[in-house]
Design a protein that fits this description.
globular, 475 residues, alpha/beta, 24% strand
Length: 475
């Protein structure tokens, strides 16, 4: 086939399960280049089952037309990948599309330009340089967009089904376009032809884990801040904490957590930036449900001096001060505007705390935009007020006892108890751990809606954030 440069193309969107559409700019009218009639849309169509490139063309009047010389009529992404390669030497992170025998000096058939006009619809895969191996070529091609309706079949030796409370043997799990579609016994559910097979037949497979209370953009440490969170907040600016959030999110995902509720203490909306970056495909990570800035009475969980609170506003952005009905409404709306998807309040971080009516105002204002409200609770009286107001969830177990649990069970209020395990030395003690376990058992016996929640916001030497979170299963 001809190997000619045809210009740059920007990923625009995926219109069908087996198509990716790119904006194309012809490159100098070279013989055999991109034929542009009507619209300048380059389309690469793949076979949904085999990954075979069956046509490349320009969409005109709803049809696909072959591209003279850009792609062969048939080129297969098989184990060799010898006829379709991606390489570097493009400018500004461009990816060069090659076709041929694999010579390093091949002329690029096309350039795939990563800075497309619609970043929400494609994945940024980074700058490339030099010649890429055939395996890297496939990885980059698939990262540009879900080009084909790829089916993946997972062979599970044992499959945990939490809803039914059973473990089944020798199961097949089918995944299409990133979604689970079928689960069945190996003898009854056939694997489609051409599907990618992941063999986990010697392992136990389970659904993704959920941490209902984490702080991905906060990591206080023994060095240099002696585990003093207030110092961490002062020393670590939001851009650094956003990078920490990316790292912690990846660590959580690697440990099996696919959904995280990120409940504040994330600087100036680093949690919202993390969520958007994951949703747009810039970085891998779990599904994020984030609270934005925690809302509390003046000072939040801090006890600042008058100079720090009034003159330097050092409490912000860790907490939004809201002491009047107008401030409560404004704080909820600010968080929603800047990217929160749930609201978190300090019910009783100060002795006066929020009244039942004030908590109800938070709940009603959040409900206007479809948000739930979680309350950070430290005292029994704070828990009582939150329960009476009908809050969605209560964080931490300090103020919870059997009477509170009965009220939570009656109103179906979720308990995010953040039960620290005894194995995390320095973060609990035997007496506190015994009380933690007793309270959790009491809540379970009374059928309080329970969540797995960690409040993980600290560094443990030798462990990732995900490994720290996994330890909470001990409790």
């Amino acid at each position: 086939m001809s190997e000619v440069f045809v210009g740059t193309v920007d990923v625009v969107e995926r219109r069908q399960p087996d198509e990716i559409i790119m904006m194309a700019a012809p490159g100098g009218g070279a013989a055999g280049g991109l034929e542009t009639v009507g619209t300048n849309f380059l389309i690469i169509r793949l076979n949904a089952n085999t990954g075979e490139i069956v046509c490349g063309g320009d969409r005109h009047a709803g049809t696909l037309r072959p591209l003279n010389g850009l792609l062969q009529e048939t080129a297969t992404l098989d184990a060799q990948f010898s006829n379709l390669r991606l390489g570097g030497n493009g400018s500004d992170g461009d990816i060069l599309l090659f076709a041929g025998a694999g010579n390093r000096n091949d002329t690029a058939a096309a350039t795939i330009h990563l800075d497309g006009p619609n970043p929400a619809r494609r994945h940024m895969i980074g700058r490339t340089s030099g010649y890429l191996t055939s395996a890297a070529c496939l990885a980059l091609l698939l990262a540009l967009a879900p080009l084909a309706a790829q089916t993946t079949a997972i062979r599970a030796g044992r499959l945990l089904d939490p809803e039914r409370g059973v473990v089944t043997q020798n199961q097949i799990i089918l995944v299409e376009n990133g979604r689970f579609t079928q689960i069945g016994a190996a003898g009854s559910l056939a694997i489609p032809a051409g599907a990618e097979v992941i063999d986990l037949s010697s392992l136990t497979v389970m659904p993704g884990l959920v941490d209902a209370h984490n702080h991905l953009a906060l990591t206080y440490k023994d060095e240099p801040e002696s585990n003093v969170y207030y110092y961490t907040y002062v020393a670590d600016p939001t851009p650094l904490r956003a990078i920490q959030a990316v790292s912690n999110g990846m660590q959580m995902l690697s440990s099996g957590f696919t959904i995280i509720r990120d409940m504040g203490n994330n600087g100036n909306y680093a949690d919202a930036a993390l969520r958007v970056a994951i949703e747009q495909g810039w970085i891998p990570g779990p599904t994020i449900i984030n609270s934005g800035i925690i809302i509390g009475g003046m000072g939040g969980q801090f006890w600042p001096t008058p100079e720090m609170a009034k003159d330097h506003n050092i409490v912000y952005p860790e907490y939004l001060d809201a002491d009047t009905p107008d401030e409560i409404v404004k704080a909820v709306r600010q968080n929603a505007l800047f990217g929160a998807t749930v609201i978190k309040i300090c019910v009783d971080c100060k002795p006066w705390g929020y009244s039942v009516d004030e908590i109800k105002l938070f709940i009603s204002e959040a409900a206007k935009i479809g948000f739930k409200v979680e309350g950070h609770v430290q005292t029994r009286d704070g828990a009582r007020r939150a329960i009476e107001a009908g809050i969605w969830s209560i964080a931490h177990d300090n103020g919870l006892d059997e009477e509170m649990h009965r009220g939570m069970a009656a109103k179906r209020i979720f308990r995010a108890g953040t039960e620290t395990p005894i194995s995390l030395t320095g973060h609990t003690n035997p007496d506190r751990y015994a009380r933690t376990v007793a309270k959790l058992k009491n809540a379970y016996d009374l059928k309080v809606p329970l969540t797995f929640s960690t409040d993980a916001d600290y560094y443990v030497p030798g462990k990732t954030r995900g490994e720290v979170a996994i330890e909470f299963i001990e409790t």
